[in-house]
Structures
1.
Amino acid sequence: MIDIKSLNLEELILEMESRNEKKFRAKQLYEWMHQKLARGFEEMSNLPKEMRTLLMERYSYTSLKIARVQESKVDQTRKYLFELSDGNLVESVWMKYKFGNSVCISSQVGCKMGCRFCASTLDGLERSLLPSEMIDQIYAIAKDTGEKVSNVVVMGTGEPLDNYDNLIRFIQLLTDEHGLNISQRNITVSTCGIVPEIMKLAEEKLQITLAISLHATTDQKRQALMPVANKYSLEELLGACRFYFQQTGRRLTFEYSLVGGVNDTEEDARELIGLLRHFNCHVNLIPVNPIKEREYVESANAQIQAFKNKLEKNGINVTIRREMGRDIDGACGQLRRRHSEEQQSGGIRR
Ligand code: SAH
């Protein structure tokens, strides 16, 4: 069955015309899915009953169930755990900033990239998400909060460039003027650095922000943290980043998770400056969020500050990521893991 919410408007019009439905009906249907954020065909009250019956019989309609919500006591961050139609679980985060509301979504169930400090990848990849399942996370949160979403970051569980075609389609749907009409500039996609896919993405010439998970300044150190670094060297990765900038004119973001005693020394800062000196970029320092399955620890506050200052002094644009929602299993994949562990042991811990 065709997953109807993953079709763009043109495709939907063709699809409906092939069933002898009028163009305006296809537009109404699209509006129900992508503007009124209907949870199913039955809500689509201005479509004729026969059409709704046909839709129900012939098309699949994804919708998420809220399995759990945790709200931070520190800020207004909310972490959602959603259940997909096949019972799999994904996490998304709702963040309120002064400049608008932001949703962080997952692109896969689990992840196969194996970054050492990350909870999402501990059990490997279960499957990739459909475009509709990515966008549903935003729709479900918009419905639940009743507020407007202005920014979307693809920084939850999964490697978005390992789900390339669905990611592109998702961006199309999200930025469509007949849908939520979110500007490309308000979308950020974060990747661990799959070089050929970055090159491909550059050719699409989108105006989205690309964030690269760098985390280390030499191939050797990067390989110890991120298996993907065995496949692509830093030189190749930074070459692809340069190409991305040339093609799109968009400033890159480099994410650098600071891990105590691993990549947070003065020498690391110096090497990072050397690597990025000629880049038009922004560095986002993320104090590592320790997961219980690994022995990594956070850097001391003074160390984090010193690292930041050194970068700044050398003209690199840098921020320390505000640690939103740390009290609610804010790190990628933590909530989903805890939920499954609790289901297995039969009790909810608080
Ligand atoms: N697969 C994508 C998006 C996933 S996570 C990527 O690798 O970029 C978003 C960011 O959070 C990445 O930079 C990731 O390396 C980082 N991250 C994951 N777990 C973390 C943890 N426990 N502490 C700090 N940063 C973490």
2.
Amino acid sequence: MSNVPTVRLNDGRAMPALGFGVWRIPDSEAEAATASALEAGYRSIDTAQLYDNEAGVGRAVAASGLPRGDVFLTTKVWNTSQGRDATRRAFDESLKKLGTDYLDLYLIHWPSPKRGLYVETWKTLLELKKEGRIRSVGVSNFGPDELANVARETGEPPAVNQIELHPRFQQRETRAYHEAHGIVTEAWSPLGQGQLLRDPVVTAIAEKHGRSAAQVLLRWHLRHGFVVIPKSATPSRIRENFDVFGFDIDDDDARALDALDSADGRIGPNPYTATF
Ligand code: NAD
């Protein structure tokens, strides 16, 4: 059994606080990378329809011999599959590729407000949950306005909002909304896609603790109560990113990392201006 701590979702379920992200790992490599992660002890995998590697992830889970109930599987519906019928089709396709008959967590990947379909898509996720095919439902890249819209239209707030989050881009307003409404914050690009690993504040803290920069960043996320899903295709780094439960950063370190927040620290697209 894995010893990863869990966070409690607003639907009563538990989700591992640390998972493995597989964006930009091609399907041909996703099986080996996911197998390394499962071997290292990860029990939560974050993929997406868009990543085109759900089949590789599914093969690794099947080959691991782990009971399905021991692995927390997340995938996401892509923007072009928003709307009731398209979402149901995409969902069926994702399940087939992953080789499973249910998901632990299904997310709307981006709100894509120009399509005007995210509320209908949210209702479809709730439908699939009622049918027992999804355990928990959530969203990604939603801001407070979109979170409020889906909650108002359905009375059911998402369990999770997966957003870009790292010390240089801390999304305090969205996080405050999450805290007020019982939504778990899940951090994507928790290492700033690798860019934060060279930040002198981060490397100094790493040196002080005899740990790596990646481990320091992951501890910062866990200390804040975020779910974190670092990505690597390199087995030694996959193991390193999982080995974060035997030490902690201290209050001074946390304050120094909190102070790195920057208005222009965003690396990925802005959900409000994205054209996809
Ligand atoms: P990340 O912050 O996890 O950084 C990954 C990169 O950091 C790797 O490619 C590697 O170059 C480097 N790295 C990782 N571990 C390292 C280590 N120990 N030492 C040195 N270098 C290391 O970036 P990410 O992949 O963008 O984000 C993680 C996951 O978040 C993704 O795989 C995906 O699952 C999810 N994600 C979701 C969205 C979304 O819109 N919902 C967007 C981006 C990412």
3.
Amino acid sequence: MKVVIIIPTYNEKGNIERLIEILENKIFPTIRNHDMNILVVDDNSPDGTDNEVRKLMRKWKNINIIQGEKHGLGEAYVRGMTFASQNLGAEIMFEMDADLSHDPNKIPEFLKNIEDGYDMAIGTRYSGGGSIPSNWGLSRKIFSIFGNLLVRAILMRFKIHDWTGRFRAMRKEVYLKEKNELTAFRGYTFQVSFLHKIVREGFKIAEVPIHFTDRTLGRSKIAPKEYIIDLLKYIIIARTIELIHSPFLKYAITGFTGYVINAVALEIFKSKLGFHSGLAASSGAEMSIIWNFLVNNFWSFSSQRIKSRVKFFYKFLQFNLISFGSLVIIGVVVSIGTHLFGDIGIIRQIFLVVAIGLVIPYSYTMYNIFIWKRWRISLLTKLQAALG
Ligand code: GDD
Ligand code: MN
């Protein structure tokens, strides 16, 4: 296949020459089953990086360069990928730094994953034996490790360990699918937003453990403060949008209205119909359960709506069982709270709130797994398969 290694440069004289020589002399000759090419995306580096590349282009014919204004790294990549796919006919595209922080010896391993059917292979410094430079200062280490954990936690995507790295290979199909969606986040944050879209699209991604080494020549162009703010902005906005589009918000609204129904019904049953308090409360709770089940089925989880009558009945029983779990959680939490801090109104209310804080993720998870089946738990699937 035609492979294009895209290398963005800004003032990488010296580095780019060393990298290209290693690629041409040492790496490419070992790769027999692919047509290997290089594309340098230089942003008019004042140090004459482009002249160095042009000199090498006379020696090797598989090198290309495009130049443009400096609009940040993400923008340079978009330009590079566009050129690689439109003008060079790339079938596989690599992203790689020019400063030898990315070990060229790893290239065959990336290609192996693509040959094995992965759509994308990404270098990871945080799993499978990958590493960051031991000589990095503490703050840069914390910044990098913590930043990646934060991305994984906020986006709720834990399978990928290294979101900010830049040593990656992908099939052109991945780029073609995503190219119209490239967001406004085009600085260093581009890396995260681009990968996020690819993950959501369901492409198959492999991780390749890499040892990231510090550059020996020139300076890093990273601007940590700007990077953190941009990154936070992206992950928070992206996750909020996901949540708004997911059933979660509707589920929360349904749950809240269900709570109001429960409270009002309790009072009506008690004062208007003369029910015993306990019976009034549980009748109110059952009304709320019925309300929750119906509204969630026809609104919150409408994409997964239960239609057949038999299933509807069966699922409603299951739903009651899950709701019973919520009652147990509330009962236990409030008992513990009043036991420890005294059985007075304010304590009961505080622990009721604590309990609801547990009930919300509990029931949302149960609904997603057991009732409307949006989530698949691999262990459960295996168990079900084993049981026939
Ligand atoms: N064309 C172009 N335009 N290239 C740029 C620009 C730009 O505005 N800014 C940086 N580059 C090039 C550099 O010349 C280098 O080849 C590569 O992009 C990476 O830049 P560095 O400045 O060396 O980044 P770093 O080593 O500090 O950052 C590394 O770690 C980050 C966080 O983990 C890189 O691997 C980043 O990609 C990574 O996000
Ligand atoms: Mn670097």
